[in-house]
Please model this.
Amino acid sequence: MGNRSAADADRLLEGRGPGTGGGAGTPAAAAAAALAGGVLLIGAVLAGNALVCVSVAAERALQTPTNYFIVSLAAADLLLALLVLPLFVYSEVQGGVWLFSPGLCDALMAMDVMLCTASIFNLCAISVDRFVAVAVPLSYNRQSGGGRQPLFIGATWLLSAAVAAPVLCGLNDARGRDPAVCRLENRDYVVYSSVCSFFLPCPLMLLLYWATFRGLRRWEAARRAKLHGRPPRRPSGPGPPPPEATETPEAIPPPEAVAPPDAIPAEPPLQGSKRRRAKITGRERKAMRVLPVVVGAFLVCWTPFFVVHITRALCPACAVPPQLVSAVTWLGYVNSALNPLIYTVFNAEFRTVFRKALRLCC
Model:
C-alpha cells in the first residue's frame, strides 16, 4: 500500500466513476460513511424510480406524452442503481482502489457514460417534444398517433450507446494502464464524451424550454383576450396563432360552452372550415410545469462533475483534490434519487398515485 501515492496522483489526471475516491488512506470511518451513504442512495433510487414506472403503467391519467419520457428517464436511473452504483460504492469503500478486472472496469465506464448521456438526451427529447406541441399543435396532434414518443425515446438510447461504445471497443485499453485504478484512460475521449453528453445538449435544451414557455404564455394571453372579446396583440415567438382579430364579441362562445380545463384547445378552429382542434390537455400543461424543476436539479447536480471532469482532461497539471472529485461524483449520482421527490412535491397527480401505491404496499 505504500506505493499507492504515485497511483493516486496519476488518478487525478482524468477519468470518472470508481477510482476517484479519497485515496488508499481512507480511514475506517470514511469507508463506513461511504457504505452507509451508498446503500441509502441505491435504495432511494430503486424505490423512487420503480414507483414512477409502476405508477405511469398502472394509472391511465399519468399516461401522457411527457410522462413516457419521464419513465425512460426513470429507467436510466434504475439501471444506474443496478449496474453502476454498487461497484462505485464498493470502490469508494476500498478507498478508490479497483479490485476487479480491467474488462469489468471498461464495462462499468461504458455503462456510466451511456446512462448519464441517456438521462440528458431524454430531457432534450422532452424539450423537443414540448416545443413541437406548443409551436405547431395541429401538426403535433395529427402525428401523435404515429409513435413519435417511442421513436424519440429509442433514438435517445441509441445515441447514448453510440457515445459510450468506444470504451467497449478497446479505447480504454491504454498501454501502461494501472489495473488498480478504474477510469477513462483517453483524454480526448473524456473531452468528446463531455461535450456530447453535457456541454452541447444543455444549451439546446434550455433554448427550447425558453421558446416553449414563451409560446405557451403567448397562447394563454391570446385565449384570455378572445374570451373577453378583445383582439389580442400578436407577439413574436413560437406558438399557435392567436384568434382572428376580426372576431366580434358575438362570435365568442358563452362561458358554459368553453372547454373544461383538461381539454383546452391549443389553437382556435378556423371559421368556415371543419378541422380537428389541437389540444394541450390540463394534465400535459401540469407536467410541463414540473420540467423546469427536473432540468434545474439535473444541472445543479451534474454541472460541477462535468466541469471538474473536463478540467482534469484539458489541464493535466492542474491540482484537483481527490475529495472534490469524489464529492462531485456523489452529487451527480444523487440526482437519480431526486426526480421522484420532485414529481411528488410539484405534481398533484403523481402525489396521489404514489400515495395509493404506498398504501397498497404497506
Notes: The radius of gyration is 24 Å. Residues 1-15, 243-278 have pLDDT under 50 and may be disordered. The chain has one domain: 11-213+280-361.
